[in-house]
Amino acid sequence: MIIPLLKGLKLTLKYFFSKKITLRYPEEKWPVAPRWRGRHVLTVYPTGKIRCVACMLCATVCPAECIKIVAAAEPDNRKYPESYELDLGRCIFCGHCVDVCPRQAIEMSTVYELSEYSRESLILDKETLMKPPAERYVSEKRKAG
Amino acid sequence: MALLTIDDTEVSTTEGSTILEAATQAGIWIPTLCYYPKISPSDSCRMCIVEIDGYDRPMTSCNTVAVDGMRVRTDTPELRVMREEVMKLILADHPLECPTCPAGGECDIQNLTYRLGIYGTDVPLQPRASIPTPNWSLIEYNQSLCITCLRCVKVCHEVIGASALILRGVGYDARIDTRDGGPLWCDFCGECVEACPSGAMSNKVFRRWARSWELRKVSTVCPLCSAGCRMELNVKDGQVFRVTTDMDTHNKGTLCVGGRFGFDFIHSEDRLLTPLIRSNGELKPVSWEEATHFAADRLKNIISKSGPESVAGLASARLTNEDCYAFQKFFRSVVGANNVDSEARFSFLRVQRALELTCGIKGATNTLGELLQTGAILVVGIDPLEETPALGWKIKTAARRYDSNVIVANSRGTSLDQFARLRLRIRPYSESELALGMMKVILDQELWDTKFVRGQTTHFLPMKGLLDKVPMRAILRRTGVSEEDLVSAARIIGEAQNAAIIFGGDVILQETGLQCAMNLANLALLTGNMGRPNAGIYPIFEKGNIVGLCDMGVMPEYLPGYQNAAEARNLFESVWRTGLPFTRGLTVPEMVVGLENGRVRALYMAGADPLTDYPNAGRFASAIGRAEFVIAQDIFLSPTAQKAHVVFPAASFAEKEGTLTNIEHRIQKLNPALQPPGEARPDWSILEEVARAMGKPMGYFTAADVFREMTLTIPFYRGLRRRDLEGDGRLAHPFTDTGDRLRGGKPYAFAPVRTSESPTDPDSTEYPFEMIVGREMFHFGSTSTRSANLRLLTPRGELEISPEDADFLGLADGDEVTVSSRGGSFSAPVKVSATIPKGIVFAPTNFPDMGAYRLLQENTTVCNVKLVRRT
Ligand code: SF4
Ligand code: SF4
Ligand code: SF4
Ligand code: SF4
Ligand code: SF4
Ligand code: FES
Asked: How far is A23 from chain B (nearest CA, A)?
């Protein structure tokens, strides 16, 4: 009768004195793998110019059809996205857009905190996507190669 | 017939076709790069090589004629290696900029490398560093993407006849260039872009660019001129990005600058978006509800006070057949008057009358395609480049490829001059005398078709009697043509197996257009070129749906389908379930008089812009000021709509359903590609809305309802279904049976000939120049002046003047002058042009802000003006 009780207590005590695995989220955050597929980033050249050339391949390949680009061309015929919208509410984080991009213009950061109070604010525009996320979330991919 | 074996398949093909064509017929694919069906083979890429038994080397299939008993293999390991070599050489210096290349997704290089499984090249890459031509309009050429296949050069030369492009340099330096190496200045048809297999020739106004696979292609009809070319609107996100074509159409996938680049007026910022009502002298936006009720109440009020005859209506060739039909029904059944008319009063109706009297037809006798097989073509008073470019290409091809003898008679130089066997620079408005002169020569030299004239025509002898009285000397003096030229022109037409006569705006718009058209018809009858294939007479008028407008009975004299009220009253009354008015109705000049004397109190205009388009614009402008109530429905706030009390926003051709009828009486279907902007609506539905507000609905809910009713009431529409009109549409000719009575029981009748005095103006000392008005080359009607693309080419209307006169007045290109006549004045920049004879100036009528028509007196296309330089 008492034996099973002690067995249970033993287990409790074992965990009581072992290293804690619970993270005090959100103060503490879980480190994610460098290849984590989080919120997208539109990368820029060192000059600050957007790398994307509005080739529409990402929008075409996206299975969730969540990328919407309005393309434009500069007077010298260089193409750029006039607007670039990505609906995180529909995105399935498959990463196809990153794979297909011929200019490494879109990458996925490790940002996973994406909740918002409305569906509309899940639609990210070009400016938001171009803003680099906080340092700790920057993808390790480029370093990893 | 040739029977050959291609890859173990027996293929039979017509004599003279190439191996490539035979293989394509049999569904066997042979890779090609420089082959383009519209042009002769250039034989430059070597991609299409095949092995033929008995030949010791591979042959290019695109230019090797298939011979009976040939054994052809299209896919052997040796051929594959050779093709791979070809492709690798192309890729060696090709930049592969596919992600940003305008051709990406529809590029022959992409497709071929993919299909042939070539994933790179071992020849070291040396892409040519070259920037796209910066200073061409609408079109851009990028040497680094060019494979010098010459499709662009040949299509420009062989199909369009502009010959603007050449190949310059050899080897790595080979590139396409303009003839003089300067910026491109050509017809801007965009055919070179359509023909280019790569992204080297590209559409420069495809700025807000999209990739080819994102664009939805909506097949529709170009509404800008009366050729009615089929085209595809490429749509994405509610916007038309560009226009492409399908080669399998009656226009063989060829478009002019209007169709290719002029579409963007539909996205103009000037589009009307909401109904407007005038209050305190200004047009203010209101709701549909308010606008329709305001319009209906005022109309009802005026009708109840002064009767339906006090309301008049003007429609336009911008409308679809459905819109036109609804318009005249609105007047005949809701208002209760026959007062409907249009700009056709000053143009196409004259011709129709002339042709009805002589031939019993209502437009062109034959199709445009038949021109290719015609032995001789007389082109009178028209420059097809300005009016219906599609016709021009047919004539050019006929002249060049089929050795047709083309005679061009015009008072100005035309784009056809270099293709003509004979050019007659006649004096303005002497086309009629030219026809008479040719008839005299044909009779003198016994070149007339006696059998045809005896068997199928009447009134020959009275006509001949009158003709004999006209002295040849007078004709030569009036036309300014030498006797020698006149005789050779007459001989060419008289001796040809088949001859066609084409006449256009310069004939149709003149005051004596009726007589002139009859004289030309007489000439066609005399030479027996009537009622036969590959011959006939073609009246050409620029405005889009002018033929449909007349077919739909937007004129006081006829009900839809050219039916007389006396005969068709019962039919219409039973279908419309209303009575028809018994009054005669007013024509445009009578409406103007009515407005002036107060008998016409209200004016309803659908798409019509009399202040820009009518030759009595000056008088109209003051008359419309007296109207108590003016309603306008249009896509833009035209100068006339600015004077209206109620303005309804209408949908453009890209936003509505409906049918259009082209110059050969081909009824074609428009397919909507977009939603109308703002609150705009199709014209027929605006009319229905007003009719409902007046308490007499017409019973239309869709454009299909209107069409169904047309098939019930119009004889030559009977039994047509809308789905029959998919693709190239249907040819439906109205033949009037009353004609036989007019023509004494024979199918054709000669009309009496008369000569006319040249229109002279008494104040020729004060106003030394004769101004002729006409159409601008890159614009079609006034709608296209709202197209930003076309405005790039011609931003403003220019006054063309001969070099001698320009010298005398000390004027140079671009100098501003004020042009004034007794009727009014406008100012415009000058353009010195060698095609204009001395003493004459030419003003285009397309530009609403210029308003050349406002200088004219009634019904003419000529007036005397003076020029004063503006400082
Ligand atoms: S694939 Fe890359 S370059 Fe192309 S549109 Fe997307 S982000 Fe831009
Ligand atoms: S022409 Fe074709 S192959 Fe060349 S860059 Fe353009 S799309 Fe790519
Ligand atoms: S646009 Fe037409 S006319 Fe001009 S170069 Fe191209 S094919 Fe020739
Ligand atoms: S521009 Fe295009 S069509 Fe012309 S030669 Fe070059 S690749 Fe051929
Ligand atoms: S304007 Fe006339 S010729 Fe030009 S594309 Fe349109 S219908 Fe054809
Ligand atoms: S397609 Fe025959 S040589 Fe180019």
From this structure: 45
Residue-level length of chain B: 871
Domain assignment of residue B608, yes or no: yes
Q: How many domains does chain A have?
A: 1
Tell me the per-residue pLDDT of B23-50, one tens digit each, with 9 for 90 and over. Answer: 998 999 999 999 999 999 988 889 999 9
Q: CA nearest B72: which of B80, B82, B64?
A: B64
Alpha carbons B821 and B631: distance in angstroms, whole number: 31
Nearest CA-CA partner of B94 in B145, B43, B20: B145
- Whether residue A6 lies inside any domain: the answer is no
In angstroms, the CA A124 to CA A112 distance is 14
Regarding whether B594 and B473 lie in a shared domain, the answer is no
Q: What is the pLDDT of residues B174-188, one digit of tens each?
A: 889 999 888 898 999
Asked if B140's CB is within 8 angstroms of A60's CB, the reply is no
Q: How far apart are CA B193 and CA B741, in angstroms?
A: 53
- CATH number for the domain harbouring residue A56: 3.30.70.3270
Q: Is B635 in the pocket of ligand 5 (CB under 6 A)?
A: no
| Summary count for chain A: helices (H), strands (E) | 5, 5
The 3-state DSSP class for residue B422 equals strand
Residues of A in contact with B237 (CB under 8 A): 70
Structural domain count of chain B: 4
Same structural domain for residues B790 and B857?
Answer: yes
d(CA B292, CA B148): 59
Note whether B525 and B748 are within 8 A (CB): yes
ipTM, two decimals: 0.79
Best B207, B213, B234, B242 member to test A by mutation, with max A CBs in 10 Å, is B207
Q: In which residue ranges of chain B is pLDDT below 50?
A: none
For residue B145, count other CB atoms closer than 10 A to its CB: 25
Among the candidates B40, B56, B75, a domain finishes at B75
Asked if pLDDT for residue A140 goes beyond 70, the answer is no
**Under DSSP, is residue B235 helix (H, G, I), strand (E, B) or coil?**
strand
Q: Is the CB of B261 under 6 A from ligand 5?
A: no
Asked whether the beta carbons of B103 and B196 are under 8 A apart, the reply is yes
Phi, psi of B529 (to 5 degrees): -95, 55
Q: Domain check: are B620 and B514 in the same one? A: no
Question: Is the C-beta atom of B32 inside 6 A of ligand 2?
Answer: no
Question: Is any atom of ligand 1 closer than 6 Å to the C-beta of A50?
Answer: no
Which burial class, exposed, middle or buried, applies to A122 when counting CB atoms under 10 A from its CB (0-12, 13-18, 19+)? middle
**Residue B231 Cα, gap to closest chain A Cα (Å):** 24
Nearest to A71 among B132, B140, B208 (CB): B208
Q: pTM for the complete prediction?
A: 0.90
Closest CA to B336 of B520, B603, B135, B578: B578
Residue to probe by mutation, ligand 3, list B155, B184, B186, most atoms within 8 Å of CB:
B186
Which numbered ligand comes closest to the C-alpha of B108? Answer: 2
What's the CA gap between B81 and B84, in Å, rounded? 5
Residue B493 sits in the same domain as residue B630: no
- Residue of A50, A51, A55, A80 to mutate when probing chain B, most B C-beta within 10 A: A55
Q: Closest Cα partner for B785 from B603, B609, B660?
A: B609
Q: Which domain holds residue A106?
A: 31-144
State whether B672 and B604 are in the same domain. yes
What is the C-alpha to C-alpha distance for residues B654 and A13, in angstroms, rounded to an integer? 78
